Amino acid sequence: MDLPKQGAITEVGPRDGLQLEVRQVPTDQKAALIAGLVRSGLKAIQVASFVHPLKVPQMADAEALVDLLPLDDGVQYSALTLNHQGVLRALQTSIPWIEISVAVSDSHSRVNTGLALDRIGAEVDKMMNSALKAGRKVRASIQCTFGCAEDEPIPDERILKLSETLLSYGIHQLVMADTTGMATPLSVKRLLRAILSMTTAVPVGLHLHDTRGMGLVNVMAGLEMGISHFDTSLGGLGGCPFVPGAAGNIATEDTVYLMNALGIQTGINIAQVACWSHHLSRFFGRTLQGKIYRLHPRNSGQPACNLNIN
Q: What value does the mean pLDDT take over residues 204-213?
């Protein structure tokens, strides 16, 4: 197999991983977690989302958290936005990467952003123009790329048209998101063939969920198509607050283990990431969805990684 030689992981645990959790993680503890993930070798971390604090209370401290980040340490810190108001909030901070996330499912778009698909175009135009004019790097992600349980099957043409529109703005990365965990290896490969034929200059990534237990199988399908960029969450934390029964993201440790087994380099220390997963497991009082972190001792002889669990 002609697989990538290097793998690029965007750790989304501090954002996607925490957003469903009822127990609030204090802002300083989030900053400690992010710093620990940086020490583990992660070079891209999504730290927060600028969304309505009443809908996603765990993200209400986005501005305060960004203020605590050392933005000059060579890490690509990003935050997610769903509308123009979110972009404007992000622009009031020093966050260098802004993710502009758009759904191709009408029902998901309505519940997630309050906008029907026929109103999305104008909103995206405002979001893109504001973010790019301000000199921020833009990750554009397409939600529900592989389907939404609440909708009829989403035609590939709709996804490709939106991808073409997003690419036309001069974005820095395009991410295909399996928001509801409906992707299969066949659907991943079919869609990627079309998407990759549209661009060679912009990196294409996958944001996969493990709702139906297909997460790592779909990673393998992506790797076989030459994809090297993946969004992951430590311990397999995560899920969408607007998707009933949503499971977590693919686990960072599991994904890196797979890549290591295939000879793909990431520069990420699994044991150090696993240390933080153990502490989050204790913090939330349950075993997390990921597998590989459980094989590592709680502290793994690594530098201190601890959350206040009192």
A: 94
Minimum mean pLDDT range among 73-77, 124-128, 170-174, 305-309: 305-309
Distance CA(271)–CA(275), nearest Å, equals: 6
Name the residue among 298, 297, 296, 278 with its Cα closest to residue 288: 278
In this predicted model, which residue has the larger pLDDT, 229 or 1? 229
Q: List alpha helices for 62-149, DSSP H.
A: 62-67, 84-91, 106-113, 117-133
Residue 117 CB neighbours (<10 A)? 17
**Residue 298 structure tokens:** 């709680």
Q: Is 122 within a domain?
A: yes
- The pLDDT of 275-286, averaged and rounded, is 94
- 305 in a structural domain: no
The answer to the question of residue 198 being in a domain is yes
Number of other residues whose CB lies within 10 A of the CB of residue 228: 20
Domain with 221, as residue range(s), is 8-295
Which one, of 121, 46, 130, 143, lies nearest residue 85 by Cα? 130
What is the number of helices (H) and of strands (E) in the chain? Answer: 10, 8
CATH of the domain at 112: 3.20.20.70
Cβ atoms of 109 and 116 closer than 8 Å: yes
In whole angstroms, give the CA distance from residue 53 to residue 39. 29
Helix axes 270-284, 27-39, angle to 10 degrees: 160
Secondary structure (3-state) at 255: helix
Residues with catalytic roles: 240
Which residues have C-beta within 8 Å of that of residue 157, sequence separation ≥ 6?
Answer: none
Does residue 110 form part of some domain? Answer: yes
Number of domains observed in the structure of the chain = 1
Residue at token pair 């936005």: 81
Q: Which of 143, 108, 116 is nearest to 243 (CA)?
A: 108
